[in-house]
């Protein structure tokens, strides 16, 4: 038994024999989509017209502070990690997020339960 794969143009649903997976690059990022020859030709023309603008443009980085990786990136306690605080909270039935900021009241409760925990600087 044979199987026939029919490629469909992602833009207009055309299902001709010339439809194929077409890779293209914009600003250093590679994209792919299924296009017939006509839409592929249009895409190439659009990219050709866009090229001078991209060459002159600057990349804009998001404003604000840089994001550190979640977890133990900046523990608030010396001698303990954020993972230690999360594990303790879970064992105590205290609700705490799996990632991101740990609430101040969770830290306060952890310090009460662990007198040796010293607030970090």
Automatic annotation (TrEMBL):
The keyword DNA-binding applies. It comes from the Bacteria. Pfam families: Lsr2, Lsr2_DNA-bd. Residues 81-113 form the Lsr2 DNA-binding domain. Residues 1-58 form the Lsr2 dimerization domain. InterPro entries: E3-bd_dom_sf, Lsr2-like_dimerization, Lsr2_dim_dom, Lsr2_DNA-bd. Residues 61-82 are annotated as: Disordered. Transmembrane segments: none annotated. It comes from Thermomonospora umbrina. Keywords: DNA-binding. This is Lsr2 protein. The keyword DNA-binding applies. One of its GO terms (molecular function) is DNA binding.
